[in-house]
Amino acid sequence: MNQHRQAAAPMTRRDYAWYRMDTDNNIMVINSILLFEGQVDMERLVSTIAQRLPNYPRFTQKVELRYGRPHWVEDQQFNIEDHIELQQMEHDASLTREELQAHLTRLAHQPLKGGRPLWHMTVLDHVNGGHAIVFRVHHCITDGLGLVHVLNHLTDDNGLHSRTPSPANHPHRATVVQNAVCSALVRAVSHMKIAFHVTRLSMLWPDARTPLKNPMYGEKQLVWLPPLQMERVRAMSKRVGVTLNDVWVAAVSGALRTYLEQKGEHVDGRALRAAVTFNLREKANAFQLGNEFGLVAVDLPTNVGDATTRLQFASERMTAIKRSHQPRATMAFLSIAGCLPAALQRFALNLFTSKGSVVLTNIEGPGGRRYLAGSRMTDLICWVPQAGRLGVGLAFISYAGQIQLALFVDKEQIPDPERLMQLTYAAFDELEVATRELVPEQEGEAVMLSEARRA
């Protein structure tokens, strides 16, 4: 079915690091679910995906070592139907969110089959009066930004189904956006700063001891709740002149603070540290797939009781990181890890991930409604995998004017993930009230302070 056979291509050391990162407790698979209206037409769905997905070579290639180096190699036995499975659900449209979460959790524990392209779709019929697709992609293929590009190419912006995708998102028509070439001196200084940050990260103290640092046993759970409206969150950010991501970081910080406080933990002392994803790729280059992001270590303001102050600290710390070389340092760290023997890579990764307690990611999804094989997509939910000693991941993905929050945890660290998810929503409510209470003079000052920080 693949009309665009590709020659073997070297795999980047960074992607190879992700490829080798699977453990019994953490599988490096990006789990997502796409919810649709109406009954599924499997023939039309499979035909559409067969025509569009192979436009990205990584989805028809497997990983092989050649001359000791990892390569993407065309799978000569590739068959799209081996990667798309219809599962007849026992329930009808009355299937509850809890039952669907339990089913997805079972799927998330299953490794992808080796020796073939590392992705799989499970189609579920009779879900909430419609159907759903569980799309599982190994992290070595792409990151969140690349996955959104794939979804935009697979889908249409209207329900008039066509086998031919829109040229606007076609990877064969895209061109690479080149960054401005810097002088040798500027590059040398940049490399020195990156080396400094790699050294600094390796010397950080391990994160504070809380239940979030309990040893993992590999029993995980996926959780989500109904979406937030984008305009509501954007209004909070505009009132104080911060970004949506700053609001997200502040809300998670407030939720973790309350959660740990309710568990009897002392929360006013040392702040928790998070590994926050930071995109380093031009959006126009997302069609290339692969991994182009850094994981930055951020001290979350979990030791701050006031919601407004917590938001201010979150914004200041995220702004400081954007100006630093820390994101590129962690991306360089992953490239170095991909050159090491597997055992040494695991050691380095465990050392790095011991510095934090949670993973946070923010993904900008499609801005408008999307349709796949003529069916309207109502919701898009994505879960971030964790690596090494991290077992708690929170994701924030936007889609068509709404924001979906999702939690993926090891139950030895978070035995009641629904509670943490509810507290995250409550933290957004708290931030909304706190930002609305700003009088106009304070609101103006907040915006000016924010602009001054970014100047």
Automatic annotation (TrEMBL):
Domain O-acyltransferase WSD1-like N-terminal: 14-247
Pfam family, one: WS_DGAT_C
GO MF entries: diacylglycerol O-acyltransferase activity
Metabolic or biological pathway: Lipid metabolism; Glycerolipid metabolism; triacylglycerol biosynthesis
GO cellular component: plasma membrane
Catalytic activity: an acyl-CoA + a 1,2-diacyl-sn-glycerol = a triacyl-sn-glycerol + CoA
Enzyme class: transferase
Record protein name field: diacylglycerol O-acyltransferase
Organism expressing this protein natively: Pseudoduganella ginsengisoli
